[in-house]
């Protein structure tokens, strides 16, 4: 249960900016799982996994413990890096997001 439920328009917009603004869909070059990606810098990558993407990723399925809050897949990371090099995923925050 959330401890805070935003109601004001400004708060809802801030929530959208932090969680989904500028997300670019990237498919893993191995399993084709599709995730939302945002890179605020070369070293900062935000990934939004969907239930379908988690189910499609054999790496996550293989090592899932049910407790992992921030799953990582090296093949997906390589796919995101390639998308950033190709300019598909822009690198750099805009207006702080």
Strand percent estimate: 5-15%
By DSSP (H or I, 4+ residues per run), the number of helices equals 4
Number of strands: 3
Give me the side-by-side strand order of the main sheet. Answer: 1-2-3
User: Can you tell me the residue ranges where pLDDT is under 50 for at least 5 consecutive residues?
Assistant: none
The succession of helices and strands, N to C, reads HEEEHHH
- Which structural class matches the secondary elements? alpha+beta
What is the arithmetic mean of pLDDT? 84
Radius of gyration: 15 Å
The largest pleated sheet is described as: 3 strands, antiparallel
Shape: flat
Q: What gap, in angstroms, lies between the N and C termini?
A: 26 Å
- Indicate the percent of residues in helices: 25-40%
Give a structural overview.
With 97 residues, this protein is α+β, with helices and mostly antiparallel strands. Helix content is 36%, strand content 14%. The chain has a 3-stranded antiparallel β-sheet, covered by helices on one side. It starts with 8 loop residues before the first helix and ends in a 12-residue tail after the last helix. The model has no long low-confidence stretch (mean pLDDT 84).
Give the gist of this structure:
The chain has helices at 9-19, 51-56, 58-63, 74-85; strands at residues 24-27, 34-39, 45-48. The protein is α+β, with helices and mostly antiparallel strands.
């Amino acid at each position: 249960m959330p401890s805070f439920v935003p109601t004001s328009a400004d708060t809802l917009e801030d929530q959208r900016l932090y969680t989904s603004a500028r997300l670019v869909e990237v498919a893993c070059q191995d399993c084709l799982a599709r995730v939302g990606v945002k890179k605020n810098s070369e070293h900062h990558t935000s990934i939004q996994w969907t239930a379908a993407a988690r189910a499609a990723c054999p790496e996550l399925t293989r090592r899932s413990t049910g407790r992992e809050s921030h799953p990582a897949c090296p093949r997906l990371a390589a796919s995101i890096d390639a998308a950033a090099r190709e300019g598909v995923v822009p690198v750099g925050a805009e207006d702080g997001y």
